[in-house]
TrEMBL record:
Record keywords: Hydrolase
Matches recorded under InterPro entries: AB_hydrolase_fold, Esterase-like, Mycobacterial_A85_antigen
Gene Ontology molecular function, alphabetical: hydrolase activity
Name listed for the protein in its UniProt record: Alpha/beta hydrolase
UniProt lineage: Bacteria, Bacillati, Bacillota, Bacilli, Bacillales
Length: 245
């Protein structure tokens, strides 16, 4: 039975204007930790697929439990919603809206959050998180902007050929710290770009990142390409990045 304290979460829904995104705005959902105080400062996790991360990934509930009873220091979570009809175009590095999304993220979203909430403005305290193509775009935001992001949480990253080519052409990545998991039952997953073996895609990306000296946590375990798998992995991923209090 779930402890009621884990469900008494503070989640604020907000909208940010954007000159980069064609629709001119983007919806956000922001989790504030128990005991939130504007005088303090907090690490921040930016989640792609914000609605899914909160509703299906239950990341706010996991955060609440880890902060109240798991010994982790309080942190803020920013979920960035996405229109799934253009998700691939935004999240894939060869998508037609990809650069606009990256520019929105870096030039508008991060300054907005750092102006409105007491998050720590350092690479050690910003984390990017995503599932499937959300893991992909998180990695590519970090690759384009290592001055802002060093930490990436990737749940079954959709590391297609374009992503692998970009990483293969990249120099030393000793600054990058990436958490990668993939399910062993993801060997023939049908996407809008065809059927892919996500285990192989993640193994190949791990190899490319290893060759460039990135710090990698990598695990393959039983699981399908769905939130039923990723939700169970969220707490361990949070523990990897967030310090104990």
């Amino acid at each position: 039975m779930t402890d009621d304290r884990y469900l008494k979460r503070t989640i604020i829904k907000s909208t940010i204007d954007s000159r980069h995104l064609p629709e001119g705005s983007r919806n956000l959902r922001i989790y504030l930790p128990p005991g939130y105080n504007e005088v303090l400062s907090y690490p921040v996790i930016y989640c792609q697929d914000g609605e899914d991360f909160f509703n299906f990934g239950r990341i706010a509930t996991s955060a609440q439990e880890l902060i109240l009873d798991g010994g982790l220091e309080p942190f803020i979570i920013v979920g960035v919603d996405v229109d799934k009809s253009v998700r691939t175009e935004e999240y894939s590095p060869d998508g037609t809206r990809h650069q606009a999304y990256v520019d929105f993220f870096v030039e508008e979203l991060v300054p907005f959050i750092e102006n409105e909430y007491p998050v720590r403005a350092s690479v050690d305290d910003r984390i990017l998180a995503g599932d499937s193509l959300g893991g992909t775009v998180s990695l590519h935001i970090a690759l384009q902007h290592p001055e802002l992001f060093h930490h990436v949480m990737s749940m079954s990253g959709a590391f297609y050929g374009a992503s692998q080519q970009i990483v293969a052409a990249t120099g030393d990545l000793d600054w990058l710290n990436i958490y990668m998991i993939v399910g062993l039952q993801e060997e023939a997953f049908e996407t809008d770009r065809g059927v892919y073996n996500f285990v192989e895609l993640n193994r190949d990306m791990r190899q490319l990142l290893q060759e460039r000296n990135a710090t990698i946590y990598y695990e393959e375990k039983d699981g399908k390409h769905q939130w039923g798998f990723w939700q169970k992995e969220v707490p361990a991923a949070l523990r990897y990045f967030i310090r104990e209090y």
